[in-house]
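Hi C.,

You asked whether I'd gotten around to modeling the 110-residue construct. I have! Everything is below, sequence then structure, no commentary in between.
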Amino acid sequence: MFRPKLPTMPQPTGTVTPPAVVIEPTTITPGTPAPPSAPAVPASAPVPSRPTVQLTPGTALVLVGGGTAVVLVVGAVLVSMLLAVAITAASVAVCAVVLRSLLASGAKRR
């Protein structure tokens, strides 16, 4: 009842052989290299491959404001985590002092 049931592997019905691969040799004939062509001169101004990013004063203010917001949020999270650790450490220290006092007073009464 508590023994695991392992699946049985099906037995192959016949001899299984991988398919034969036929390799035929090919001949390599050296060709004549093509002469390098001269670069074509465009009639109009060249089109940039990537769009250029233009910073206007408005977008710069948005970037600065967004960066400031991110820094403030991350700073608030880190400060709150540090405060939580400090409060926890202080409460553990108070508990340790109370326990030490209770144990010391119990030993004096004996």
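If it helps when you're writing up: Helices lie at 57-109.

Thanks,
B.
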